[in-house]
Each structure stands twice: as structure tokens, then as C-alpha cells.
Specification:
alpha+beta; two-stranded antiparallel sheet; elongated; GntR family transcriptional regulator; DNA-binding; WH_DNA-bd_sf; transcription; UTRA
Length: 253
């Protein structure tokens, strides 16, 4: 059986022929072609790949070659191997806990389309907790932002962020990407401390995330710093527990 995409073409035809004369191993060529198809949304989330045998026959390679390519993408978090069901484009997002990136950057790196629904933008005086964490004096003006973060139109996280007013020109300077606004103002964080907590979603959080009340969630608190040591960003993001995996590379010594 030949597997086809929604456009009617076989996946093998969309991936293109592999070059047996190339110095690059065939499994790496296939891995790159599949990765490109995922990033360009030729293969969307939850798309089932053809059986390894079918894909091998259509590409004219061994099943071992196909399996090595798929295993590599599964290790990257782009594909999910389901026992008895096959291989699927992953819907979960692997967030590198050791890398300082924005939500939009994470989504684009996975071939997903990021967007936001603004819940609130406000200007006010720093709270005692914010003052302590951001090292601000009492009475300092801050901007607060709350929005629902989406990937391909599906809710992924509720994000609340506080910035000292001096970090961006105005409250309206933050539009699609908070980090883009900070970058343009010359105040993008270069390092951050992050804390991860497990929680159960409240009724309101579950409604926004299209989950069920008391479903598992993840709370990530981030405190971002400039190169000179000043704290500029205090954020709390609540993620659906079934959509995000947080990973970090650990080294001995």
C-alpha cells in the first residue's frame, strides 16, 4: 500500500530521490528530507508516516536506512513511535530548559506557527514580590502583560509577564513577540533563572487551554537578566502537561 498526503502525492515523491552516490549516508539524507517536510508543514502534527516497509520500497532503500532516519528524528522529538500504531509527527513540544528562547522562536524551530490572544495589558506600580525579584524600588512603574500562546491555532500556554517600564518604549511596544520588543530596545535578556513546578489547572486555566479542570499542568517561572546583571523580565507561564516536555543537557564535573 502506498501512503499519500492530503494532496494525493506519495510521501516518497514529495521527499524526492535519495542520492546513492553522495558522501552523505542515505539515512541522513532521508532524515533531512523528513525534517524539512515537518518544518515546512508538508507533514503536520499527528500525521502518520507510511509503514517503514512501504517507505523503504518507494525510496528504493533498506528498511534499516528508514529506521535509522526515523529513530534520529524521534530522538529529536519531531517524531513519536507508537507501539502497534506506527510513527507520527509529534504534537508535543520539547523545550530546552537550558536555552534562553522565546515561545515564538521555539514554535518556529518546530515548524509550528505561533500566535497570541491578548488577555490583558496594563501599567501599574511594582508589587512587593515583583520589586524583590526584579530588584526595583517601591513605586517603580512596571508593565504587565497576560496572553494566551497558541501554536497552529491550538492553545499551549498562559503567559503572564512583568517588565520594568524602562525596558521598552511604551506599553504598546510589545505586540507579537515580547523578546522582539526587548531586543529592539536593547534589553533582551542574555541569561535567566527558571523554576518548574507541577500544578493542577483551575477552571479558568483549563477553559483557556481547552483542557479539563484539575488536569496536570506545568508552571514555569523565569527571571531574565541583562549582561550587566540587571533583572528585566519576570514571567510565569502555565503549560498544558500533555503538550510540553522540558529537557536539559547535563554534564559531569
Amino acid at each position: 500500500m502506498s501512503a499519500t498526503t492530503s494532496g494525493g502525492a506519495t510521501l516518497a515523491a514529495l521527499l524526492g530521490a535519495l542520492d546513492a552516490q553522495s558522501s552523505q549516508p542515505l539515512y541522513l539524507q532521508l532524515q533531512q528530507a523528513l525534517r524539512r517536510a515537518i518544518e515546512q508543514r508538508v507533514l503536520g502534527p499527528e500525521t502518520a508516516l507510511p509503514p517503514e516497509r512501504v517507505l523503504a520500497e518507494e525510496l528504493g532503500v533498506s528498511r534499516i536506512t528508514v529506521r535509522k532516519a526515523i529513530d534520529g528524528l524521534a530522538a529529536e522529538g519531531l517524531l513519536e513511535k507508537r507501539q502497534g500504531a506506527g510513527n507520527f509527527v509529534c504534537t508535543r513540544i520539547d523545550k530546552n530548559f537550558a536555552k534562553l528562547t522565546s515561545f515564538s522562536e521555539d514554535m518556529r524551530a518546530r515548524g509550528r506557527s505561533p500566535s497570541s490572544v491578548w488577555l490583558k495589558k496594563s501599567e501599574g506600580t511594582v508589587s512587593p514580590e515583583e520589586a524583590l525579584k526584579l530588584a526595583l524600588s517601591p513605586g517603580t512603574t512596571v508593565y504587565r502583560f497576560e496572553r494566551l500562546r497558541l501554536a497552529d491555532g491550538h492553545p499551549m500556554a498562559i503567559e503572564r509577564c512583568t517588565l520594568a517600564a524602562w525596558t521598552v518604549p511604551s506599553l504598546t511596544a510589545v505586540d507579537h513577540s515580547l523578546y522582539d520588543a526587548l531586543d529592539q530596545a536593547g534589553h533582551r535578556p542574555v541569561r535567566a533563572l527558571q523554576r518548574l513546578h507541577a500544578l493542577l489547572l483551575t477552571d479558568e486555566q483549563a477553559r483557556l487551554l481547552e483542557a479539563k479542570p484539575r488536569d496536570a499542568g506545568l508552571l514555569v517561572e523565569r527571571l531574565g537578566y541583562l549582561a550587566d546583571g540587571r533583572a528585566v523580565e519576570l514571567s510565569q507561564s502555565i503549560y498544558r502537561g500533555d503538550t510540553y516536555d522540558f529537557v536539559a543537557e547535563l554534564n559531569a564535573g
